[in-house]
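Before we proceed, please read the two lines closing this message. Report back on whether the structure tokens fit the sequence:
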Amino acid sequence: MNFIETRGNDGQRPLEVNFSSAILAPMASFGGIYVPKTLPNLGLEFLKSHLDTSYQTLARDVLAAFEIDIEQDVIEEALDHYDYFDDPSNPAPLVRVYDDLFISELYHGPTRAFKDMALQPFGLLLSSLAQKRNENYLVLVATSGDTGPAALETFKNRKNVQVVCLYPDGGTSDVQRLQMVTEDAPNLKVIGIHGDFDF
């Protein structure tokens, strides 16, 4: 499946790109982003077949429906990162609060940030693309507290990827700051900035 731009094409970029190209250059023409050209039909049968499957199985089948250009073994290894959540079979549990109110808990990953849900598989995926293309990537992270620890965790010791993480010194919780400044992987650099997150 190919991806198209949300704000039209400026004539400088291709009219359509594959999934890995959209990941590596996510800014589209006129400040837009990339979205799937078409959406797969995830109908009632698809939903019924996943009522009792694991999150990893659901994610695998959704990615298959989008026909992304990432090798299956890389997808499998990336999805294995959910094994490091509190409950590997249910990394984002749906919890009943009242009879008619449920909450999806997204804090059961290694850094306790909701961003673990998206970022934990992503480090391996990006590193795999970098190695396949024989390229080196620098990821610049700006965080107010949640993104930094999750990004550092997923990218630590990944080949062909280096990360610089900026955070507002004194503007995060002590736990978040310690999660960042105690990372010791050689491909990570954490810098506290004098100023707030917007600065």
Observations:
- The mean pLDDT is 94.
